[in-house]
Amino acid sequence: MEKLNSKRALPSMRQAQSSESKKAGAKRANPGRKRIPYTKEEIHEIFRRFSLQRPEPKSELDYTNAFTMLVAVVLSAQATDAGVNKATKALFARADTPAKMAALGEAEISRYIRTIGLWRAKAKNVAALSEALVRDFGGEVPDDREALMTLPGVGRKTANVVLNNVFDEPTLAVDTHIFRLGNRLLLAPGKTPEEVEAGFLRIIPPEYLRHAHHWLILHGRYVCKARRPECERCIIADLCKAPVKTCDVPTPIVPIEEEAVAVATPR
Ligand code: SF4
Hints:
Layout: H1 9-29, H2 40-53, E1 58-59, H3 66-76, H4 81-94, H5 98-113, H6 119-136, H7 145-148, H8 156-167, H9 176-184, H10 193-203, H11 209-222, E2 260-261
Parallel strand pairs: 1-2
Helix pairs in contact: 3-4, 3-8, 4-5, 5-6, 9-10, 9-11
Iron/sulfur cluster binds at residues 185, 223-224, 229-231, 234, 236-237, 240, 242, 244-245.
């Protein structure tokens, strides 16, 4: 290995080190932040149009309280919301609180949810999370992500859905549609759901954060579809900077009032 002991080499080394550390410092100042090709005004306009199109988006899952919402979301992984609703109708009639569900037990819960994919694991999780809620949280669903994520079967996405739907928290549960849109539109590019979530949370104007994830999911499901985006039906076609875009003319905004969204179903 070459010896680095020449006195004349030191100043240039220091310069190089200093410029490297400046670059590193600049990177540290914005960890993980990626440049996106939109102005603040364009982003605001995108979400303003979404808000005009869907003023009050709602969850498609049936629930009556925070606990039944939590259970419904846990059951909805790898399942359709319609299928979950069918199963939970009878289940929630018997047990709509953590105490009642814990008393029902895993075997009895299984009987109600056998039509849902992964029912064995889900029955186990629902029984265990109900017991944990009774034991550790006084029978209440906590309104805190960290606490929710300590419950069996509850990951970040489930916690975000519950926080958003039940506690009106401005969270963003990244599903397949939101993940695709963040990357395709270059609004919040990222390799993981967490990166896309962080990217969107950074740019979405606060006044639109409450419903943003519903709007993005619906836009992804019905217009900016996975296989072929229907740009000619898109209300943000003039603003969108997706390389795959096929049309520059936005379609007029027609408010859609009565539309539920399956926020929790990864499709
Ligand atoms: S213009 Fe096309 S690619 Fe862009 S958001 Fe609309 S549907 Fe998606």
